[in-house]
Every structure is written in C-alpha cells, then in structure tokens.
Amino acid sequence: MARETPVSLGGVADQPRAVDLLRRALASDRVAHAYAFVGPTGAGRTTTALAFAGELLAPDHVADHARLRELVAARQHPDLHVIVPTPPARNPKGPPAIRIDDLRRLEHEAGLKPVMAPRKVFVLDDAHRMTADAPEAFLKTLEEPPDRTVLILVLPRVRALPATVLSRCQIVRFAARRHDALAGEMDAALSLLDEVRA
C-alpha cells in the first residue's frame, strides 16, 4: 500500500476562506459538531476534511503527532471513520450509495469512546449519495450528536440533501479551483478562435 502524505490545513491550496474558518474554529476551541463541505468536484473538499481531521485527532502539541497524522492520511487512525458510497451487498454492480445500515454503524461507533484521540471524526464522502430514506435516519445523530464527535459531510451543492439535515451543519463553501493547464488551453483556444475570425 502506498504511503499517504499527511496534509495539514496549511497545505490545502486555493481555499483560503474555508481554511481560515476551520483554523478559527480550532484556535477558539469552538469546533462544531457537524460540518457540510460544499463545492464542486476537484475543489479539495475531501482533502480538507482529512486535513481538518488530522488537526482534530493529532494536534501539534501531542507527542508523536506526525505519525498520527500519517495514520489519518492513510485513513487508518482508529478514531477516523470515512464512509463512502458502496454498491448494494447483493449486487456488486449496482449504484453506489450510503445506506441506512452505514448510518446505523456510524451512530453505534459515534456512541463509543474515542480510542486514542480526544474525539472521533466521521467523514461522509459524497454524502449526497444517501439513499432516499437515509437522511431522515441520520437526523437523530445530527440533532443529538454524541459527545466528542465531529461529523463532516462532503457535498457538491447545498441542495443535495434536505434542508433539515443541512440546517444542523455549519456550511463551509469551497470555490472551484483554477487549473492552470486548463486555463492555458482555454486561452490558446480563444486566441485561435480570434485568429480564425480575423
């Protein structure tokens, strides 16, 4: 297995507003129980979620924090739980989704004490891929969050989940990243178009 390079919030590129909001929460020790990281694919939402998890689970003042951050980056820290959409158990080629059973496991895990860190972090990647009945089941966890638990939902847009779910999360917006290679190609294409018109 390839070794993952830990990312700190300082290493997150092109998202100064999101990073600043999260840093202020850490500095003031006013971390919300639930966040919704909202933005387009490629904006660094999941990378930022793991960087934030690293800060929460292995702060700089903790001994051996570098090794603990590596565990977070590799998604192997015992207090980090990353939930991703998966195909149905009975149909491996079926559409990936986050199902009620996944959220029940999350609820059970969240009720247990953290193993190593002061809290547990749950990242729901592509949270908009919950089955139709799953958001309602998830509401109880959001309304009565277990102590020492932080939930991070990664979404492409605000309306991807019901308002009842998002109203219980602090929304962190991510802007589309400017890809220099793509921008260069677009500039070249526009230049060529201008030549053709001339």
Describe the protein in words.
With 198 residues, this protein is α/β, with parallel strands linked by helices. The chain has one domain (9-197): Rossmann fold (3-Layer(aba) Sandwich), CATH 3.40.50.300. The protein is 39% helix and 13% strand. It is built from seven helices and five strands, in the order αβααβαβαβαβα. Helix 2 (45-57) runs antiparallel to helix 3 and helix 4 packs parallel to helix 5. The protein is globular.
What secondary-structure arrangement, pairings included, does this model have?
Elements: H1 16-28, E1 34-38, H2 45-57, H3 65-73, E2 80-83, H4 100-110, E3 120-124, H5 134-143, E4 149-155, H6 163-166, E5 170-173, H7 180-197
Parallel strand pairs: 1-4, 1-5, 2-3, 3-4
Compact summary:
The chain has 198 residues and is of the alpha/beta class. It has a single domain, classed as Rossmann fold.
What form results from the Cα inertia axes?
A: globular
CATH superfamily: P-loop containing nucleotide triphosphate hydrolases
Query: How would you write the strand order of the largest sheet?
Result: 2-3-4-1-5
Question: Can you write the helix and strand succession as a string?
Answer: HEHHEHEHEHEH
**Total discrete domains:** 1
Just give the CATH class.
Alpha Beta
- What composes the largest sheet? 5 strands, parallel
Contiguous low-pLDDT stretches (5 residues minimum) are none
SS-based class:
alpha/beta
Number of strands: 5
Q: Give me the Rg, rounded.
A: 19 Å
Calculate the terminal CA-CA distance, rounded to whole Å.
55 Å
Continuous helix count:
7
> What portion of the residues fall into strands of 2 or more residues?
5-15%
Can you give the helix content as a percent range? 25-40%
Second-tier CATH architecture: 3-Layer(aba) Sandwich
The average pLDDT is 88
CATH fold category name: Rossmann fold
